[in-house]
């Protein structure tokens, strides 16, 4: 006959640790996404400014 | 409300299940009654019931808050119901038992106000034996996904809500039917 053991303290600790790690990971991921977006917007602005400046010079 | 009927004792949200026999429903309602006294947050004990599909109880064990050992019959499909005093749904070990043990086709966690139910669909193709470590990674990934959504939507979730939503993602991943039952009583 098979015996199974249902969860207990270890299970709860495992879940709580997993949640804490997940929250930290999520923060890092969201921050990294924000930074990447900000950088991309900054470089788009630089490109647009350069293009405008070149157009003005050409005119 | 039919107090002897497990379905009628809850307001269910989530996936739908196949119709079950009245005897099985009565058996599950009886098991629920037995387990309710272990769901209080200060309970020192936990309970577990192994139930055959004809509604007959195969095993009932009381253990410490930390662990309950339960017997499964040699070759009969069963549902396992057990109590959680913390209000959390299935733990890594509960998932491990359900996914790796072919004799278990339903796993129900009874907490103070809710019942969390996982059912293997009749056409479930199964998974290769997986370790608790692999399930832990799946849980972590699911929790991270929920945590990212929470940050992006600027919402506040309780711990239990985190686990409930992560359980939903894991159920999808493993092809398991998942329902949350808010008890009517």
Q: Can you walk me through this structure?
A:
The complex is a heterodimer of chains A (59) and B (185). Chain A is mostly helical and 59 residues long. Chain A has one helix spanning 9-58; one strand spanning 2-6. The mean pLDDT of chain A is 83. Chain B is an alpha+beta fold and 185 residues long. A seven-stranded mixed β-sheet of chain B has the order 1-8-7-6-5-2-3, sandwiched between helices. The longest helix of chain B is centred in the last third of the chain and has 22 residues, at 132-153. Chain B is globular. The termini of chain B are close together. The model of chain B has no long low-confidence stretch (mean pLDDT 92). The chains are: A mainly alpha (59), B alpha+beta (185). At the A-B interface, strand 1 and helix 1 of A face strand 4, helix 2, helix 3 and helix 4 of B. Strand 1 (2-6) of chain A pairs antiparallel with strand 4 of chain B, so a sheet runs across the interface.
Quick structural overview:
The complex is a heterodimer of chains A (59) and B (185). In chain A, 85% of the residues lie in helices and 8% in strands. Chain A has one helix spanning 9-58, and one strand at 2-6.
Descriptors:
heterodimer, A: 59 residues, mainly alpha, B: 185 residues, alpha+beta, seven-stranded mixed sheet, 28% strand
| Biggest sheet details of chain B | 7 strands, mixed
Greatest interface and its residue counts?
A-B, 25 and 42 residues
Q: What characterizes the major β-sheet of chain A?
A: none
Give the overall form of chain A.
rod-shaped
Task: Decide which structural class fits the backbone of chain A.
Answer: mainly alpha
Mean pLDDT of chain A: 83
- Globular, elongated, flat, extended or rod-shaped: what is the shape of chain B? globular
Indicate the proportion of strand residues of chain A: 5-15%
Q: Fraction of residues of chain B in helices?
A: 25-40%
Number of helices of chain B: 4
Number of discrete helical segments of chain A? 1
Unreliable sequence segments of chain A: none
Cα-based radius of gyration of chain B, to the nearest Å: 16 Å
Name the helix and strand elements of chain B from N-terminus to C-terminus, one letter apiece. EHEEEEHEEHHE
What is the count of β-strands of chain A? 1
* Percentage beta strand of chain B: 25-35%
N to C succession of SSEs of chain A: EH
Radius of gyration of chain A: 26 Å
Distance between the termini of chain A: 89 Å
